[in-house]
Amino acid sequence: MRRLVVAFALTAVLVGATGSAEAQGGFAPVGVILTAEQASRDATFIPGGKPYWTPTLMDVGEAETALGPYLRKAALPERAVGLVDKAGRYRKQFVGVTMSGRRILLLNAVCDASINLHDHYVIVADGGDCFFQAFYDIDTHRFVGIDVNGLG
After folding, report:
1. What is the Cα–Cα distance from 96 to 105, expressed in whole angstroms?
2. Which of 19, 21, 141, 147 is most buried, by CB atoms within 10 Å?
3. How many domains are contained in the chain?
4. For the chain, how are helix, strand and coil distributed in percent, rounded to 5?
């Protein structure tokens, strides 16, 4: 019963941002999928560019599954050495962008539970490993980069 409640709660969080969960084709962790329209509105602040696209729950699930193994192998800056152990506690925005002609799923991760992820793309200056952005290539099924905020 607990799993059903948790699955329902997580799906409900995403439904508010993306419409029907069934239409997206799956399940995703706590986070918000920003639509192509939302990304276009906030384009000045989002790494990557047009055309923006709306990620599916399957895209998000695939990237989330690959994130842990990627972080364990990535050359992270010294300020982010604890990121691997904390990665599962972040809330994320998932944004479909295009970089060098490739469809990239941008994971914008935040550790601060008070930040509203639903309305706009979140930008935070500094904050260290409490904030990071990871870039997942949808076609090659691998992460192609990560940016961890500075300490300020």
Report:
1. 5
2. 21
3. 1
4. 40, 25, 35
Residues 103 and 138: beta-carbon distance below 8 Å: yes
Residue type, 27: F
Q: DSSP label at 139? A: T
Which 8-state DSSP code applies to residue 104? E
Q: What percentage of the chain carries pLDDT values higher than 70?
A: 77
d(CA 75, CA 17): 33
Model pTM?
Answer: 0.77
pLDDT by residue (tens digit) across 142-151?
999 988 877 7
Question: How far apart are the C-alpha atoms of 151 and 81, rounded to whole Å?
Answer: 13
Range of the domain at 119: 2-148
Report the phi/psi class of residue 21: left, alpha or beta, with left for phi > 0 and alpha for psi in -120 to 50.
alpha
pLDDT of residue 125: 78
Q: How far apart are CA 120 and CA 126, in angstroms?
A: 18
150 Cβ contact partners less than 8 Å away, ≥ 6 residues apart: 79, 126, 128
